[in-house]
Amino acid sequence: MRTIAFTVALLLAARVARADEPAAAPAAAPSAPAVDDLARHHRRIIALIVGGIGVASIIVGAAHGIGATEDWHEVLDEHLCDSGHVCNPKGDFLTVRSGKLATAADIFVPSGIGVVAIGAVIWFTAPDVKVLGTSLRVTPSISPSSAGMLVEAYF
Question: Which stretch of 25-29, 40-44, 144-148 has the lowest confidence by average pLDDT?
Fold first, then answer.
């Protein structure tokens, strides 16, 4: 639901200016009705937290992927395994660690993308700002040389 507000000003009498008459003080502007923005604010904070967790998961997954790639390239560059995939102890260790890091990256990156998407859904489905109640306000303005009124409606 969208908030609609309009203001109508009416001047009822013509102003007659005299040199010895002080100028009329402008009427004080009435305050707008109370607005309930708390639910939207809370949802947006939750969305930012969830999205931040998702981004952190993507970063951690990318770091694990980089580590897996570096370990695997070390095995290949230093010829720690032969053509029959028989490795020395260091090559065996790096191969196993590379696989574990790659598995972690395969879990962290897609789940992080999903969590960022959930944060976006929470952000974009936050409730609209609501005006609390409907109000009609009439403010008269009277001076020695003029009269008028301000009519405001909020709904």
Answer: 25-29
